[in-house]
Amino acid sequence: MSTSRGGTRILKLIGSSMIVGLMLSAAQPVAARTNWRDWTQLGPENFPTRLSTIWFADWQLGINATDAIKMGNWTVSFGTATPVAWWETRAPDFWIIHIPLLCKNPTTADYNCTMNLVRFIPVSSWESNCSISITSTYSFVIQQCPSHLLLEDQKRRTRHRR
Fold it and tell me: Which distant-in-sequence residues (6+ apart) come within 8 Å of 2 by Cβ?
């Protein structure tokens, strides 16, 4: 079921508990766009960067400027501007991509929140985990990490400003 509020579409999948779903309007396959990047293969040299879409391959859905995700009672969106993602290195084998978002809840206030894409090397292989942090004391795990990020075309953005 899809609803629309103020230009942002929200997809609700009945029967899911925490992660409800994502939706991408006019979705193009990842291979059709040149700035699609597997977030686990990005490095600090790629940041900061603006994002156009966060893509979840297993669902074949994404979040962008017009589409939001519904997680429990929270609606998570880009807000009014495309987010600028940034990189944090915690150790040589432990890093995080932070994506600032807007989280809305009908019971509480709206919050600036952050999607955290965490990558670390345990003993034998790469592991990842993803979460949404709403306040310093409240966050939840995203059971399905995104597969790709669509980085905004910096050349096109520069030409557009002239």
Answer: 9, 10, 11, 12, 23
DSSP-assigned states of every residue in 93-152: TEEEEEEEEEEE-SSS--EEEEEEEEEE--SSS-EEEEEEE-SSS-EEEESS--SEEEE-
pLDDT digits (tens, 9 = 90+) for 83-128: 999 999 988 888 999 999 999 999 988 999 999 999 887 655 667 8
Backbone angles phi, psi at 32, to 5 degrees: -80, -10
Residue 24 domain flag: yes
Q: How many domains does the chain have?
A: 1
Q: Count of residues for the chain?
A: 162
Residue type, 131: S
Note whether residue 139 is domain-resident: yes
Tokens 């899809």, located at residue: 2
Report yes or no on 158 lying in a domain: no
Structural domain that includes position 67:
2-153
Domain membership of residue 160 (yes or no) is: no
Query: Would you give the DSSP letter of residue 24?
Result: -
The verdict on pTM exceeding 0.85 is no
